[in-house]
Structures are given as structure tokens and as C-alpha cells.
Design goal:
346 residues; 10 helices; single chain; gibberellin 3beta-dioxygenase; binds 2-oxoglutaric acid; four-stranded antiparallel β-sheet; eight-stranded mixed β-sheet; binds fe (ii) ion; Jelly Rolls; alpha+beta
């Protein structure tokens, strides 16, 4: 599974030689390399709409499937409670994540993601599309202990066990949500669209994110606006605000953390499969002056040779051309936000 996603990224090397091993904790003023706006235009860039809130769905509610379907149509994102992931599994991954990001820069750089690689420490994959650096560090894990061994040659097991437990739990939850979502879309469990769900032949990756305190949060960007390439993403965030979703007509809407609640968002692949019936949520992360923020995302989707095509019922015209996951990853790696419009049929 890990090798397959690596294969898709190998053809799109990221030029990481200009990564700034910025020791965020020692910085007192915002460097120009990280300044996204002038001090006088910051209000426009970072304003948001607090009058709206993203639905919170209880997974054990008998109507959860319909509620999830409606949330996907309206928002492309929802919050999930009673999700069944043990608190201890989430706490462990949080502890290990904090341990990793608190290391000195030179330790973390031992596991720097190679240009054609898919895992390890480094900047966000979307970085090359933006002129400024983000106030963010990331680490991608896909089941292998190789990167952790570079950082902790003898003492990597705790970290890897925590990541693996989290990954296994997230996979089970993703499969459950996927069955509910496909059923909502009118696809039965034995059909072709469902075959990858529950098999080992899928893509599952953990993305650890860290947003250090920032001296000028109104001029810096934690994670720039993007949609996820996944089928769906499940995210745990620590108790610091920062994640926002873009809603047409309303602007940026915060998804502030709720204890014991995960955030689930629709990625490009499900947006295509739903023939654009489901929204794929554009999201970003803003930063904070006094509070650090961590998040742990699990990206879930079909294997790279799976053909993504819109599920169309009642002679509705497909809005996207069919293509493999690998082809879509390749288009996204070159076009980011423009990728979907390149595969539309009209
Ligand atoms: O940190 C967050 O809340 C969002 C992270 C995210 O969007 C991502 O890893 O793709
Ligand atoms: Fe994301």
C-alpha cells in the first residue's frame, strides 16, 4: 500500500532543497519568507464567519447515514461523535506527535522526505503552489518504520506502534463511513464501486501537522487553502482553533475543536464519484500567537490503479471523465486547485 502511493508521487518530485529548517520557537518577528500579507491588509485575508456551524453527527444515531449524506451535500464536511475510536489510541498518537515535533530541527531533518518520496518530515505537499512558506511542519506515515528509525534508531517502536494503532482504527472507521456514504448514493455493498473497501488494497496515510505559536498570526498562514485528494479524510485536532472551511456565499467558517469529536471531510475522489453531488471542502488553517496546534489527518481512498468514475443514476450526464487514481494524483501534483476543472466533461 505504501509503495503504491510512493509510486504515484515518484514521478512528481518536490524540490525541497530550499526547505528552511526554521526553528520556529526562537523566532520573534515574522520573516518575510513567511509573510502572506502586509500588516494593513490582514483583516481581509483572515476574516471568517462565526455565525455558521458545521454539523455534528452522532454515529450511533439511527439516522446517521442520511445526516452524513446531507452534510456531504451541503458542506463536504461534518464532525463525528461516538465514532468508536478509543481515546487512548488518539492520546497516544498525540503524545508521539508532540514528541516528534519538539525535537531540534536537525533531528527531524534526518527523516526529511526525499524529493520523489511520499513519507517523512517536511513541508506540506501543496507548498510549491504558493509564493510564501507556511507556519507549519508535517510528517507523513504510511506503515513503514524507516523514517522513525532515522530519528530514533533504537527507540522508534513506541512512535510506530502509536501510528499503526491509529491507522488501523482509522481504516475501520473509514470503511464504515464509506459503506454508509456509498449506500446513501445508491450503491450496494457488492457492486464494483465498493470492491476496494475493506481490502488491504487501498491507500491509507497519516499526516501529522504542527502549527507553532506565531509572532504575527494575522500575516502568516498555517496551511494554505486546498482540497484533499483522498476519498475521505478523518482528522483529530488538539484543542486550539485554526481549521476553517470555505463555504460559497458565506466565506471561511471555523471548525473549532469539540472534545471526543473527529472532523470528516470529503476529498476530490469522492467528489468525482458522487458526480459533484458531494461538495469537496476547500479548507485552510490559520495560526495563533500563544497556542500551538497539532492535528492528525488520516487520508483514505482506493488504490492507485482504481478507475474513478462518476456514479450516475437515471441517465444523468457524467460531469467528469473516468481516470485512475494515479492519473488524478499526477494532474493534481501539477495543477492543485485547477485539477478538477481539467477533468470535467463540459
Ligand atoms: O490541521 C488541520 O486541521 C488540517 C490539516 C489538513 O488539511 C491536511 O493535512 O490536509
Ligand atoms: Fe487537508
Amino acid at each position: 500500500m505504501a509503495t503504491t502511493l510512493s509510486e504515484a508521487y515518484r514521478n512528481h518530485p518536490l524540490n525541497l532543497h530550499h526547505i528552511i529548517p526554521l526553528d520556529f520557537s526562537s523566532i520573534r518577528t515574522l520573516p518575510d519568507s513567511h509573510a502572506w500579507s502586509q500588516s494593513n491588509d490582514s483583516d481581509n485575508n483572515f476574516s471568517y464567519n462565526e455565525s455558521l456551524s458545521i454539523p455534528i453527527i452522532d454515529l450511533i444515531d439511527p439516522h446517521a447515514m442520511e445526516q452524513i449524506g446531507f452534510a456531504c451535500e451541503k458542506w463536504g464536511v461534518f464532525q463525528l461523535k461516538n465514532h468508536g475510536i478509543p481515546l487512548s489510541v488518539i492520546e497516544e498518537v498525540e503524545v508521539e506527535s508532540k514528541k516528534l515535533f519538539s525535537l531540534p530541527a536537525e533531528e527531524k531533518l534526518k527523516a526529511l522526505r526525499s524529493p520523489g518520496g511520499a513519507t517523512g518530515y517536511g513541508r506540506a505537499r501543496i507548498s510549491p503552489f504558493f509564493p510564501k512558506f507556511m507556519w507549519h511542519e508535517g510528517f507523513t506515515f504510511m506503515g513503514s518504520s524507516d523514517d522513525a528509525k532515522k530519528i530514533w534508531p533504537k527507540d522508534y517502536e513506541r512512535f510506530c506502534d502509536a501510528m499503526e494503532n491509529y491507522q488501523n482504527q482509522m481504516k475501520v472507521l473509514s470503511e464504515k463511513l464509506t459503506h454508509m456514504i456509498l449506500t446513501f448514493l445508491g450503491i450496494n455493498n457488492s457492486s464494483q464501486e465498493n470492491k476496494w473497501v475493506g481490502s488491504t488494497n487501498h491507500i491509507g496515510a497519516i499526516q501529522l501537522n504542527f502549527y507553532p505559536c506565531c509572532p504575527e498570526p494575522n500575516r502568516a498562514m498555517g496551511l494554505a487553502p486546498h482540497t484533499d485528494t483522498s476519498f475521505l479524510t478523518i482528522l483529530h485536532q488538539t484543542l486550539t482553533n485554526g481549521l476553517q472551511i470555505f463555504k460559497d456565499g458565506s466565506g471561511w467558517v471555523p471548525i473549532n475543536p469539540n472534545p471526543n469529536t473527529l472532523v470528516v471531510n470529503i476529498g476530490d475522489i469522492l467528489h468525482i464519484m458522487s458526480n459533484a453531488r458531494f461538495h469537496c471542502a476547500l479548507h485552510r488553517v490559520v495560526v495563533n500567537k500563544t497556542k500551538q496546534r497539532y492535528s492528525m489527518a488520516y487520508f483514505y481512498g482506493p488504490p492507485i490503479d482504481y478507475v474513478i468514475s462518476p456514479i450516475v443514476i437515471n441517465c444523468v450526464v457524467p460531469r467528469f471523465h473516468a481516470l485512475t487514481v494515479k492519473e488524478y494524483i499526477s494532474i493534481k501534483a501539477k495543477n492543485l486547485g485547477g485539477a478538477l476543472s481539467l477533468i470535467t466533461t463540459t
